[in-house]
Amino acid sequence: MTFLNIIATTKIEVKESLLFRWDTYGNQGFAPMSKYGITFPNSAYTHVKHYATSGFEGILAVRGVDNKWYIPTLEENLDRLLDTMKAMLMIKPTGLDAVLAEITKIFPSIVRAKPPEQIYLEVDKKTLRSAIMQTIEENVKAGYLDLNTESGLIYVRPNFYRDHKLDADGHVIPGLGVASLGHHNVLEIMVQNVPSYLASAPEEGSRVLVYEEKLHRMVSGLPPLLADIVIGFSNVGRKFKLGGNYAIGGIAKNLAQLLGFDEALLTDNKWNVLEGGGENAFAFIDGKIYTPSLDEAILPGTKRSIVIEIARKLGYDVIEDKLPLQKFIDAEAAAFSGTWTGFEPIGEVNWYSKGSNSHYVKNHPVLNHIRTEYNYLLKNDKRLDPELGYLKSRITMLDLDAFRQAK
């Protein structure tokens, strides 16, 4: 089949919406999703395609019991989004000059190489917040978001990445290489109605498979490991929402789903629990709650922090420390937290190589207590425990009534 035939026979249709774009080429505004690929074409030299130079944030708008819409932890999500962009050097590094001066003092005889051209996105928290709000409002006005959706959820995805490198005449430079400072940067924000994240899971909770490289190799047809070793997940990048991190979570979840489970559980190289494919993890034992600490290779989840604060305010002990996998499996109950996931019970955890699986209590009283208050908080329910009322300051209300009426 020729290239022209591929183009002629390949048709991709997307559900229409308005996507916000801000880039270092000079573009800022909205584009229809159906025409986005035509308006902003890419080539084989787009840096992110080869080196996963991307990051994103997950933000969820929730319809409350009063039929109004709310975004939990928006300010914290914006802070984490900016931290991820800083980590990827996509916005100007504020400490660069000081560190260069220090290096010069320590290594005075070294002649440093001239750094490549640096291209940064000029964004801050205020502009990001405004762009997100505008994207939601414009899509509601255009009828692309349903405010009466059964799930009561709208997912907001800010995504940023390294794009092309151009020469002085504006032509794409046909070259590869992991360094990306000279490449242009793109920020996109898209929104959509979504169902619950673990919609395939039974009512009692998700079916979880512990990720093991041994099992992965067996399923995929890769040669077995030469030794029975545990290759876990541990690197500094796991504390940011980098695209590459979710490639790992995605591989683990794909494997779990191929084998009939809903989600995967990731561990370090000593079989300590880290997190799910896209969620933080909690275990319930003797009235206490255990979760991996932020010293581990986990994402500092914004909903994780809400769960911990609710639990402690309700009088429960929360232990943030290393959490051995077998202890997690032997717990009375377990749960995942996440922006899209919410705070939901895990039905079962299965560890293939040990033949070990959990026997979690259904409707665990401590888990249910925290889960109930968590949902009350997110949905602005008046039944929220008065002791937790101060947490409403972490919820942003969306003023969408005018757009609903206009539609």
Using brief descriptors, characterize the structure shown.
407 residues; alpha+beta; D-amino Acid Aminotransferase, Chain A, domain 1; D-amino Acid Aminotransferase, Chain A, domain 2; nine-stranded mixed beta sheet; 12 helices; globular
Account of the 3D structure:
The chain has helices at residues 3-9, 36-39, 47-51, 74-87, 96-106, 125-141, 213-220, 243-258, 302-313, 325-329, 365-378, 401-406, and strands spanning 18-23, 28-32, 54-56, 59-63, 69-72, 153-162, 185-193, 206-210, 263-267, 273-276, 280-285, 288-291, 317-320, 333-338, 342-351, 356-357, 395-398. The chain is 29% helix and 23% strand. It is globular and about 65 Å long. Helix 9 (302-313) crosses helix 11 (365-378). With 407 residues, it is α+β, with helices and mostly antiparallel strands. The strands form two sheets. Strands 8, 9, 10, 11, 12, 13, 14, 15 and 16 form a nine-stranded mixed β-sheet that branches. It has twelve helices and 17 strands.
Brief overview:
It is globular and about 65 Å long. Helices cover 29% and strands 23% of the residues.
DSSP summary: helix tally: 12
Question: Outline, from the CA principal axes?
Answer: globular
For the record, what CATH class of the largest domain applies?
Answer: Alpha Beta
Whole-number radius of gyration?
23 Å
CATH superfamily of the largest domain: D-amino Acid Aminotransferase, subunit A, domain 2
Oligomerization category of the chains in this entry:
single chain
In what range is the share of β-strand residues? 15-25%
Main beta sheet strand tally, sense and closure: 9 strands, mixed
Number of domains: 2
The mean pLDDT is 90
What is the CATH fold-level name of the largest domain? D-amino Acid Aminotransferase, Chain A, domain 2
End-to-end Cα distance: 47 Å
- CATH architecture of the largest domain, by name, is Alpha-Beta Barrel
| Uncertain runs | none
Portion of residues within helices: 25-40%
Which structural class best describes the helix and strand composition? alpha+beta
* Strand segment count: 17
Order of helices and strands: HEEHHEEEHHHEEEHHEEEEHEHEEEHEH
